[in-house]
Amino acid sequence: MAHTTASGAPRDMVLIDQQPTTFNEADALVHSSDPLHPANHICSLCRQFYTHGWVTGTGGGVSIKHGNHIFIAPSGQQKELMRPEDMFVMDFATRQYLRRPAVLKPSACTPLFLAAFTQRGAACCIHTHSQWAVLVTLICESGLQNPSERNVFSMKEIEQIKGISRGGAGSSEIAEGGRKVGNLGYFDTMQIPIIENTAHEEDLRDTLEKAMVEWPEACAVLVRRHGVYVWGKDVAQAKTQCESLDYLFQLAVEMHKLGLKWV
Amino acid sequence: MAHTTASGAPRDMVLIDQQPTTFNEADALVHSSDPLHPANHICSLCRQFYTHGWVTGTGGGVSIKHGNHIFIAPSGQQKELMRPEDMFVMDFATRQYLRRPAVLKPSACTPLFLAAFTQRGAACCIHTHSQWAVLVTLICESGLQNPSERNVFSMKEIEQIKGISRGGAGSSEIAEGGRKVGNLGYFDTMQIPIIENTAHEEDLRDTLEKAMVEWPEACAVLVRRHGVYVWGKDVAQAKTQCESLDYLFQLAVEMHKLGLKWV
Amino acid sequence: MAHTTASGAPRDMVLIDQQPTTFNEADALVHSSDPLHPANHICSLCRQFYTHGWVTGTGGGVSIKHGNHIFIAPSGQQKELMRPEDMFVMDFATRQYLRRPAVLKPSACTPLFLAAFTQRGAACCIHTHSQWAVLVTLICESGLQNPSERNVFSMKEIEQIKGISRGGAGSSEIAEGGRKVGNLGYFDTMQIPIIENTAHEEDLRDTLEKAMVEWPEACAVLVRRHGVYVWGKDVAQAKTQCESLDYLFQLAVEMHKLGLKWV
Amino acid sequence: MAHTTASGAPRDMVLIDQQPTTFNEADALVHSSDPLHPANHICSLCRQFYTHGWVTGTGGGVSIKHGNHIFIAPSGQQKELMRPEDMFVMDFATRQYLRRPAVLKPSACTPLFLAAFTQRGAACCIHTHSQWAVLVTLICESGLQNPSERNVFSMKEIEQIKGISRGGAGSSEIAEGGRKVGNLGYFDTMQIPIIENTAHEEDLRDTLEKAMVEWPEACAVLVRRHGVYVWGKDVAQAKTQCESLDYLFQLAVEMHKLGLKWV
């Protein structure tokens, strides 16, 4: 009696983009005994994010850039069950897949992850469907918190804001015009832009890239009625910023319920 | 000093429906070293669902159809403590129990699970008592969200809706009249019918089957003041749809608290 | 460098109530390799209840009656760290301690646990400080849900009510006057009495015993601004009723927030 | 392929304050097979506190005083991933670091932890960013619960208050003028002062120390829009008081939503 699932199906060697890749070469990209190897790390992060309610129902995703390799969790799979052999690996320079599990689909978030790696020099990007992120975008949309700020989430004078960097990953390199770098201070106003959702996730790329240009200090972009993209210069920064933002989103929803202003 | 519980009681060979079944034959149906064998899988799913608050207080249930065998968790038992030997096994064609643990009662949900397997070609059906599902049915009942939609939960333009299939399990086979198959799109309106609760769970069958006919695109039926039944073509689809729906139910309750409309 | 805590302190043989008990005899009462032995079971239950938020901050407690022995978790200790050797053991007939850990205090809940064992024939009693239980007693006190029911929590037509027994433990033995036994039905009204809190927990005994007499169908008593006592004929019944009640308390608070009536 | 993180970086012998310390001497301070050794205990506490949402996004912190040694978790690190070798160790008398992990920063909370150890004789101090603590300070600030108590959180007649000590750690030693010692009673009013947040955490020291003087019965100080500092005579007391307070903060927020008064 054999029990197979999508992620349990046999995975054969794949030929991609004219680059013959042997089974062993492609597989070696995702096999390591190091728990911090990107293929292993994405799996443990997904298990942790599932318990936070960030990636239930196959939603959300994670990508890590390691050198010239981009590791990406597949689309439409149960995130808490991810295994290293489920990972896609893309060459950053050529955008060609070096490894592509036969029966899985690449994540529709891929162009958005690449935007963070390219525009911000990020090395990790996390996408969650956190209900707190969605509710914050709905409250902004309603204009009930601040009628003039429907497309940006602003908050200040909350200690946890100090966990958020200016300019996202690699801010020290990309800062210009004398803009301050490092993390936000307690009296600074944190601003996270909100873009409108689209029918297809990959169609978010243009507005997400535009938001990155217009909000050079933001380390995240909220997507209305959808969730949030958060990046960082490494896994630790992306993850802790994602935690701090989720904390702030939840706090903002509770404050709104209590009739308190965010700014 | 012996400590026995209902589920820890000795289980003897049982004779069911004139079909003599030896202990070994009946037991072999639920013993496997494969964690994805239905008897093992139901146990691990129940433990996970308990942590979500879906099956506390012995509420809720899970059934998996594997070939011609229906595996069902027993009634009135602590779901987080389920063991493979607690499972009932029914023959799909004859509706006769092939295995029936001596001291346990079959689930009152059995006719409802069978409806999903028969009418929708599902292979897994999950029943939860999620408080969010119950609250959604109460808000609909109150008419405070939409006075003209007391018997259906509708939601649109929330990304997580894309985790919900049209027509439930096996939609590609049963779709007719040119109806679109696959998952819902972001701009589609998700509609989950709500049926009224009855004194005895098995009496829900007629209205549940009627709802399945009337709402061919639904992959779930809400039961007022009770919970939800969710099905899928396999365990992964049933489980991830159950997660997506629970996410949407909770989001809907929070939106209602904030004075926001679901559609 | 020695690190000792209250529960890590050495425990010596104790002489209690003129009954000389050797170290081995007293210790044998709490040492077993059976995970369902009361001394082990209380520890695993406490760990589980801690994750539910029922016994944080050393609050709450659990007692199991096994034959003529009453096993009780100590007072003022971290419940998620309980070990079998922390357990008090009392003789049910004589009310004398057969085992009394030297550096620990017996639970102030002891007379209340005994009331459930004596008056209701229970074999397990759980006391939680669940915030949902406390909030329900506060809403009743306010009269905002029902001004004429400040001393009883009533709910009906919620499926989870069917997880609650009539008359608590041993109801079949104590039922009289033709009262129905078994669990509540969907259309029955569940009623849990609320007693006022006192400065000292042991002083709750009289009103708790009075409530047990006046509400023979109740399997639990709420204590205003404090928590709840829930009992059952065995651990499974006490635990699952405690889970069902907590589910109902939380649902009731959410319903009240949404302006919905409990009955 | 090497994967290094901040906390995974190699740690060399460090020379601190002219006191040459060999690798082995400094390291011996944090290496022990005893799970209750402060260096191990802080790690397990941080993992537990992370699941409570108290120290996400690198927020919060813990310090334990053991004899003349102060153990402190580092600043800006993921608290659920702490390892014994990440700990700073300070000499209580000289305030000099006996161990200072090369690539980590000492916690900005250090002067505040020291205030609890010095002024109150505490041996453990916990700092959380609990959202419930922050919300309580916001509700007080708004004056909506009690316009005359913006700088103190007061609550009474809730059983869990009995989990809070008078005068914090070592109260029996520092109590004077006949003030009662021990824990609060049910009819006592618990009062936790609230101080205003500052741009830099270390600048809280003066107002925190002032609050300790002005509120000698308090075992904690709330920091507006930031979190809470809780101390105790040992880890058990600090931790269980922190749990009891967090329970009370959450209950207070829920009570406020329901229109109920705290006192």
**Pairing-aware structural class of the strands and helices of chain A?**
alpha+beta
Instruction: Briefly note the CATH topology name of the largest domain in chain A.
Output: L-fuculose-1-phosphate Aldolase
Unreliable spans of chain A are 1-20, 171-179
Largest protein-protein interface: A-B, 29 and 31 residues
Tally of contiguous helical segments of chain A: 7
Largest β sheet strand count, sense and barrel closure of chain A = 9 strands, mixed
* Percentage of β-strand residues of chain A: 15-25%
Protein name (chains A, B, C, D): Methylthioribulose-1-phosphate dehydratase
Keywords (chains A, B, C, D): Amino-acid biosynthesis, Cytoplasm, Lyase, Metal-binding, Methionine biosynthesis, Zinc
Cofactor (chains A, B, C, D): Zn(2+)
Pfam families (chains A, B, C, D): Aldolase_II
